[in-house]
TrEMBL record, chains A, B:
This is LacI family transcriptional regulator. Pfam families: LacI (PF00356), Peripla_BP_3 (PF13377). SMART domains: HTH_LACI. The keyword Transcription regulation applies. Keywords: DNA-binding, Transcription, Transcription regulation. The keyword Transcription applies.
Length: 356, 356
DNA sequence: GGAGCGATAGCAAGCGCTTTCTACGGGGTA
DNA sequence: TACCCCGTAGAAAGCGCTTGCTATCGCTCC
């Protein structure tokens, strides 16, 4: 059988209550007694029964981190930073102790997102960090709002990371805080860079239309074009698809078919840009000699593709860490519960002036 | 307050026991009664209290997945596949129901590996999947063996994925199964490919020396060289470092300093290869014209770097899925508890015959 | 020198669920 | 018609921990 609190108590010749208090450190215990208890714990190799503890205390030390795609470093970096921040023990006792930070992969599916939230609710998670852009489907937003409200009621802290706050914000919103990226500004600066180089016909390989991230980046792109007086039918030069390499590949071919005169292709993110580069190479076009390419996110590999990708850097790790700290109540909630993190243009080798 | 089983029972005009049985589906309940209960559950938006349930049933529906680096797609792909397999509901009732698969990022630290295992033990996890190569430090192996033994005793199924079984195997081993990759064979075939192209002076950028993965890949490389009669001091042409791009960059510069006559560089994995490529480009060397480069793993980006990387494909997703199924008791344990998955050579554009 | 108080430790009542054992009713069988 | 058994539902005893309350002890303070 496994060792229980009572066993430890017997060995240390104290009551179970005392052992519990030593372990939680939330009640004064004489040093000598504590010593004795800790020794018994060590000797018996005792491990607290989490479920029992959670049941009695009505709260668990589980923290969930939801990601859209665990195989994508974009999410991996945020999740890793959040997790290491959450797992960091600090202070003592249940309140400040290290939590079990777990990441759940929704695969971008709204159903699985809700399923995981239910599962976390079932576990009475202490907090939940939801990363990545949101779906703008009204039904899903309503379902999410309802679910998050229940979670908040049950005492779970909800923090968004890289996702705008729920539309139905205002007081009573179930969200502790939201950390967002300046996708719009980043998209805008990226396109301004291309415009400054002299590009006028720019193709845009966008992400899935219903995601906030997609929309914001595209809005930034369009805003830059508009500011430059380029008003021709941009829909024709834009193509939506998933955030995959394959999509970048296909979309790029399609865009060039629609308009062979393109001098630049902007991708919704670095992964898509990779596909775009591959497609262009297959067509025998040189980058940036014949055509420029730009990505978004500055994932680690962006600097290594040939040629090094011009992109926009997002402070992913910093945002994840911050979300983790806020979830743990270790960092102040930003004013209005909303913090926006800047996006930095990184002009590298994949963009250049169009050749005459 | 949150809704409890008793509340649902009252609404459905049955006993709590009956509600529990409907929810778990492990006991016959009349169709009409079940109907009534399910309606009450839906109307009240009831969510089971996981901790209470786990306490009473002495088992939880949590499954842990340990990874070394969550930002690395190598692990993300395995973890994602395992997670989706584990989260898949199948059959009904507690035994076959969907579990909460959670991934924990150890960051490659042995302490955190043990910490997470303790945390999962505390949660009374139903199973644990440990991915990635193991550390060969005797102290850590002993600690892991002890910890895994306790987990197994507590009823947790342990499955390794991409990691050799514990040395102290044999009967009573705490491990349900181990899925390994043929790193040695893959490494060997990769180097054979280079030898066949005519390379003789090959640099090797290895991973951290104490990891099994590193050792096996290097052993394959050396075996191929030996078979080809190349016996000169290979240690001089090998350099260890972490599995990072930076390490690949530095190590490559160092190796070329040691032996400017290298015609090929083999990296311990694709990420390292990326760094190697960058270093070579900085030196003004063309790949594969001046020097060939090869990676390992065939991560998604491998085909996109310029030029497309010759590498070895590991069936990461398949291995992860299989580990997940075994953890759930949904797939037979391979004979001897050990299954090795093949490694396929992918000869692409980054390798070619050395120029005279 | 006795009352009062602060510092510790123990008692015992749950937390919400599962599960064994018992109860009950309605056929089928002899 | 009496008996059994099957199918179904309920009663109740925990699962191992936390925590409010109570008990004890050694001092300090008048």
């Amino acid at each position: 059988m496994t060792v229980t609190l009572a066993d430890v108590a017997a060995r240390a010749r104290v009551s179970p209550a005392t052992v519990s208090r030593v372990l939680n450190g939330n009640y004064p215990v004489a040093a000598a007694t504590r010593e004795r208890v800790l020794r018994a714990v060590a000797e018996m190799d005792y491990v607290l029964n989490g479920p029992a503890s959670a049941l009695a205390a009505a709260t668990s030390d589980l923290v969930g981190i939801l990601v859209n795609d665990i195989a994508d470093p974009f999410f991996g970096i945020m999740a890793g930073a959040a997790q290491s921040e959450i797992g960091r023990p600090e202070g003592s006792g249940r309140a400040g102790g290290a939590k079990l930070a777990v990441v759940c992969n929704t695969g971008g599916s709204p159903e699985r997102e809700l399923t995981y939230l239910t599962l976390l609710q079932r576990q009475r998670a202490a907090a939940v960090v939801i990363t990545g852009g949101a779906l703008e489907d009204p039904a899903h937003i309503a379902a999410m709002t309802a679910k998050l409200t229940r979670l908040a009621q049950a005492g779970t802290t909800v923090v968004l990371c890289g996702r705008p706050p729920l539309p139905a914000g205002g007081p009573g919103a179930p969200i502790e805080a939201a950390i967002t990226f300046d996708n719009r500004g980043g998209g805008r600066r990226l396109t301004e860079h291309l415009l400054a180089l002299g590009h006028r016909r720019i193709g845009y390989v966008a992400g899935p239309p219903e995601r906030t991230t997609t929309r914001h980046r595209l809005e930034g792109h369009r805003a830059a074009l508009r500011a430059a007086g380029i008003t021709e039918d941009q829909d024709r030069l834009t193509r939506h698809g998933p955030y995959t390499r394959r999509s970048g590949h296909e979309a790029t071919l399609e865009l060039l078919r629609r308009d062979p005169g393109l001098t630049a292709v902007v991708a919704a993110n670095d992964t898509v840009a990779l596909g775009a580069c591959a497609a262009l190479r297959e067509l025998g076009l040189r980058i940036p000699g014949d055509i420029s390419v730009a990505g978004f996110d500055d994932l680690p590999f962006a600097v290594d593709v040939g040629p090094a990708l011009t992109t926009v850097r997002l402070p992913l790790a910093e945002a994840g860490a911050r979300a983790g700290r806020i979830a743990m109540g270790r960092e102040a909630v930003p004013p209005g519960g909303l913090a926006t993190m800047g996006a930095t243009l990184l002009a590298r080798a994949s963009t250049a002036a169009p050749h005459d």
